[in-house]
Amino acid sequence: MLTIGRLEPTDRDAWQALFAGYNEFYGRTMPDDFFDHAWSRFQDDVEIHALGARLDGQLVGIAHFLTHASTTAPDSCYLQDLFTAPEARGQGAARALIAAVTDWARERGCGRVYWSTHETNATARRLYDQVAENRGFILYLIPL
Question: Structural domain of residue 29, as residue ranges?
């Protein structure tokens, strides 16, 4: 059975393993204090938020998201990180997490939910093309 909900303090180790997997997918290795800081902010649930997908009670997916002002619409919700454990893929966790973030944003009056992914992430893009509209924007980044 698949359920979606807030991350609980007991999810810390499983969350970190999933978040480390997400970062490794994108070629990043994060120091432990990075995980500690992010976890603390998710537990505060003020500026950034997190949900988890549980399959038969085991945490198998995570979504991290935040809202920000928009100049052209009501506040926007940015789905910053989405990751499902490889062994749980294809069982609806990512789709359910996207739906839960969308519901959360709608309840708070946001005008849209959006995210980005790498163009080579074909597996995720198959799902994203089913649940959202690709408007063709290209992301630019200046690392600081």
Answer: 2-131
